[in-house]
Protein 1
Amino acid sequence: MKTAVEPAQESTVTDPSPREQTLPAHAIPAQPVLQVRDLHKTYNGNAVLKGVEFDIARGQVKAVLGPSGSGKSTMLRLMALLETADAGEILLNGTRIGGRTHRGHSVHLPERQLAMQRQDIGMVFQRFNLFPHLTAVRNVMLGLTSVKGISHHDARSQAMDMLAKVGLGNRADHFPSELSGGQQQRVAIARALVLNPSVMLFDEPTSALDPELVGEVLEVMERLAETGMTMIVVTHEVRFARRVANEVTLFDGGVIVEQAEPEQFFTNPQHERTRKFLSHVH
Amino acid sequence: MLFDPNVFLQQLVSTDYMLGAALSVAVAVLSLVLATVIGFFMAIGRTARQPYLQAPAHFYVWFFRAIPALLVLLIMWNALPQLIPALRADWFSPFLAASVGLGLVEAAFMSEIIRSALLSVDDGQALAGRALGMSPTKVMVKVVLPQAIRIALPPTGNELIGLVKYSSLASVISLRELLTTAQVGVNITFRYAEYYAAAIVYYLVIVSVLSFLQSRVEKRFAWTSRTKTTKNLTAAMEANTVGIS
Ligand SMILES: Nc1ncnc2c1ncn2[C@@H]1O[C@H](COP(=O)(O)OP(=O)(O)OP(=O)(O)O)[C@@H](O)[C@H]1O
Ligand SMILES: [Mg+2]
């Protein structure tokens, strides 16, 4: 069984078949928002990413599935520039971010420049990571005031608008400890969104939630997708992937195993590994 | 010789005692401020990855944890002016020498408190701050530090109370703080019980006031809103805090 899977994996990573690149005509983009080229990452000799490659076009939603420990979070942290890649390139709107080429060698950018570039990438964490010492509205304001240099007054009104959009206009002055998990995650989405990023990255945004709170967060994300936001969503929510994503990706062993439209991905996966994974999730 | 309440009360309201108490508190507060500033940088140094930041911080903590505070005060007051002529001037008072001396020693302990407070802030907090595009300094000041302060407050309050008592060591460099005031009075009148009792009352009052202020400050870090709906919850939390401290 194993030997049958591996060659397929290899060929997908290095040389994706033409079928998988063909998207419906209306979805074909002018320029990809995010391009990832041959990304590698090793932690203490443990190779976690082994050459990840993909593009995501403006307004697309990519759902990423995969078993625990396969490197999904690592991939997101690298794209959010929260960690540095050992090799490979990330391009945002056609421009390389996180590093540059100097005399034929790839070098990492200094922290100050990375901080600038991170403003354009929104990140939502599994465990919300709201700032507990700030009210909901102040959580949303912090990026505006301390990164974009927007005045307190303007930041507050922008933050209030954003909270209203995630349905929390009436919780603005509550502290995170006074909000449910679902509400906290919606504040976290507003906090990232208010900086108007080119792309939003979600790392299992509903995995830490009680089942009855999952729906409200997915609903906010679905509405966000409808506004044309480019999104990469690592998730175990198959229903969400099926309904909202334009493309579903199976990630395993540090590589992308399969990448296809949801219908194709769930009903007729091309790889044995995908079939096996889906049989466990369903 | 019986306990004479009049002698006791007379001392209790005397300007000598009040001045002595004020000096004790001032030395304690000033040295805590100094210790917090130095301790913060030592804590940053000790948590840093670069050896050239780690080594000096380690050395500092190692050195000042080993040396008795009394010896540091004697060095500050007696040895340093011999070595540094500028310190022979009038501005270098026992008060300054005591505050700086105790501050230097206390910094070694504050650095431990601050270091463990910084480390106990969840890693996800700095990560979220960085993800927003905040600079490392902004992440520290706006995200990590406010949370670390909350954790560091109770042990820092204990240190302040300790410093009030340690300020009595400054009697060896002729600072007339609270205990020295009592001792000087005793040496003249031999009314040990009355003079010492007055000192006890002052220490009790000082520490009670400081504890009260500490619990007030800690409440400001409760991070709950005080809207009508949460009022009961807040009240319950406050009752808890008071009960513990
Ligand atoms: N900072 C780190 N230091 C060392 N090893 C790490 C680090 N981060 C991740 N790893 C390792 O990399 C591997 C992939 O981790 P990652 O968190 O990316 O997986 P994941 O696909 O997100 O899994 P999960 O579904 O459990 O969240 C794991 O084996 C993990 O132990
Ligand atoms: Mg993960």
Protein 2
Amino acid sequence: MHPTFHRSANTVARLSIYGAVFVLAGLAWVAVTVGRSSYVTEAGIARRQPVPFSHKHHVSDDGIDCRYCHATVETSAFAGMPSTATCMNCHSQIWSDSPVLEPVRASYRTGEPLRWTRVHNLPGFVYFDHSIHVNKGVGCSTCHGRVDQMPLTYQVASLQMEWCVECHQNPAAYVRPREQVFDMSWRTDRQDEQGAQLVKDYKIKDTHTLTSCSTCHR
Amino acid sequence: MTKARRRLSGLILCAACVALSSACVQKMASQPHERPLQASAFFADGQSARPRVFGTVPSGYTRNNARVEPPQSFDPDAQDLPFPLTREVLERGRARFDIYCAVCHARTGEGDGMIVRRGFSRPPSYHTERLRQAPLGHFFDVETNGYGAMPRYDAQLSVDDRWSIAAYIRALQLSRDATLDDVPADKRAELQSGGQTK
């Protein structure tokens, strides 16, 4: 009887079975990479804002402290956003007839707030609190990167769960002395010894508590 | 109805259920609550944050501010703080001064801060005779209500912080003509040996 399949069909069949493993692994890799990429997390993408506000100018060039504008970052969950009146503290005189700042002046005249586009946006089922992080020695730049060098603000971290948990598993690798939290260029060569000591000094909670689901999903 | 038909309609029903249930996506990520300062279509002014009603005290306010703010009840001629002066008060005052005031007044109080160098009108130095004689309440008044070209800071600074800054300004002024006799005896040696300035 004439065979239905050619002899080589055996090899093809075997190859495609083994090959499938690699194809599936490859697909999984692509899925994970895309999931972590800035395409999904939107990290690294500067937002269009009603006024082209530059942290680089205000923080690096003019030496304004984060808290001048984000006044509640030490005391509440929300970092706080500057009111139009806060901008006008200086811009009543500086660049006071620049067209770039017209939306700010218009907002001041009418009382209609400026509508900044959010850069960071955690999903509603995640609880985050600035004050605890800032008071336990996690610096702004650890999570937000060198904001002081950004002409337009963008997100640096992925803000995915694995990113939060990585630090919650081992905060000693990231914490710094409280006094340095607002120092954007802070770095140290002695994180190994210093970190562990700070975790003790600041009585930072144990890994078990910090990684339990109800800490962030409450 | 034949058996096959019944089976078919069962199948269609199942498919319809699946299709319908997948159509109602649960949006857990955007839940029906407003985040701070989020825009809202609910209120006429388009804001979810409600302005403070005059004469009310926000909940939790007394916890953060030992003294609740009564509108305008301080004395601009007050010579003293409404609370005891401690090292912590001065250190808090310095920290807040460096954040909110030094951009214009400079850390020394000379009045040549960065924003002034960028074109803002120059404030008077704190070390002029008039301001050295000014009562503590005057600094609190300026911080609370503004003064000429100087913006008001009552929105950014709590009552306690404003008094702490006033106390720190006085310390800055006194530091100008302090003599060795003003330094505690046990610290003099440190100073004379050129000890670190902080």
